[in-house]
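Slide 14.
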Amino acid sequence: MGNEQHQNPKSDIEIARGATLRNITEISDKLGIPGHGLLPYGHVKAKVDPEYAETLKDKPNGKLILVAGITPTPAGEGKTTTSVGLGDALNHTGRNAAICLREPSLGPCFGVKGGAAGGGFAQVVPMEEINLHFTGDFHAITSAHNLLSAMIDNHIHWGNELGIDARRITWKRVLDMNDRALRNITNSLGGVGNGFPREDGFDITVASEVMAIFCLANDLEDLQERLGNIVVAYTRQREPIRARDLQAEGAMTVLLKNALGPNLVQTLEATPAFVHGGPFANIAHGCNSVSATRTALKLADYVVTEAGFGADLGAEKFFDIKCRKSGLTPDACVIVATIRAVKMHGGVAKEDLKKENVEAVRKGAENVIRHVRNVKKFGVPPVVAVNKFSADTEAEIEALRERIAEEDVELVLSDHWANGGAGASDLADTVVRTIEEKPSQFNVLYPDEMPLWDKVKTIATELYGASDINAEDKIHNQLRQLEEQGYGHYPVCIAKTPLSFSTDPGRKGAPSGHTVTIREVRLSAGAEFLVIVCGDVMTMPGLPKVPAAAHIRLGDDGNIEGLF
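Slide 15: predicted structure.
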């Protein structure tokens, strides 16, 4: 059975609420975490003590499996659900596995997306708490970010000894909510006691550089060093002002101290799940924390983790940023697709997806194949997982299987949404066999010493199918200045639409020959990468006409309704 047809057609939240959760100590016992290594937050969630995690550093790593996806469509692909189902299936088939996911943001939760902890019978629980305040990590990140914002304006108010040019402050404020009215604001109004008025704005918390730093930091010492390196403004002479110049990094680290411990929860089938950190997958690298992934790899034989958006964004950043910076080595990559989504890439409208269309599958398969070939360029063996829907026909599935087989890659049907780990057993066996038969030869796409312009061009031409990149002279000058300032060895983080290989979200399939235009370059000196903005990218989303929040309420029984 598939996603649209199940004997118990309950909503995700009803399924999650009906589960019997195990005490978090039972989950930690599966991983061999002693009592002193666990910091419980109630009965069903906890943090792993970073000091205990440090004692694991000499243990061998398990196998690291990345779950990525084809280019997203409104039809949905089910990447997180597949990550959960694969983790459950590995344990279901007798392996020792854990899952590493990002924490959901409140903004999308109350906006369009709703909850983000998997779906059906492949969910991470407690779903409501994970989607709402959880262990307070995002609140801590928001507070640390805004403390730095307050210290900037306070420094200017009390004489501006550092000579900050108020016109060149690059550090905005953040809020973990979708609120378009805050994108551009004027602060410090109301008289001399409130500071000097200037233009300002808000980003969503998951777009904060503090979030990216939090997810890439090795430990508290590294975290504080990176926070101090954040460039927040420039002087009139164009000299950078860093967080450490404002003596802000110490207090910011204090606010983040407890948050840095990885969060441990469970799936519906009691698979250990680390849910920690949540950077944007376009303005940042879109992966859960390095600390959570490392901890999981020391405690489990197989670790399933996820990268945001399609593989052209999420997997590339996982490989070129997270793995480059942390030394992690992925052993396999699962590329998630649905027949529905493949048909959309083949030109089928959403309202026609239930009709069989084998030719559209063959045409849309080009999107899947490009992602497969891209992953191979990193030396990582791919597996294609088709998240099954009841409307999929045998002819459509076989058409996609034939095209994927031409790439010497296996395609596996997976029915974890309806049947949990048992529904993904074939996928688990295939992934393990792929790891054993095709050892990873992981490599990054470009070397550190490659010029910044060439790094962007390499990604655009090698992965996006572009013929070239272009930019105005000011972008060329900015990249040259960044290299002169010592940032040339940084990896680049491409911010573009996730809905196409091109910068035009309307171009589905596998477009080629297009030109990628660089609109803006942003320095993330603490996170140690450069954000290359291509096209229109929002760092503070807005709510839709009818936001999900309009349907979320407490029921008469005290339970949350409408969250998912």
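Speaker note: Residues 4-8 have pLDDT under 50 and may be disordered.
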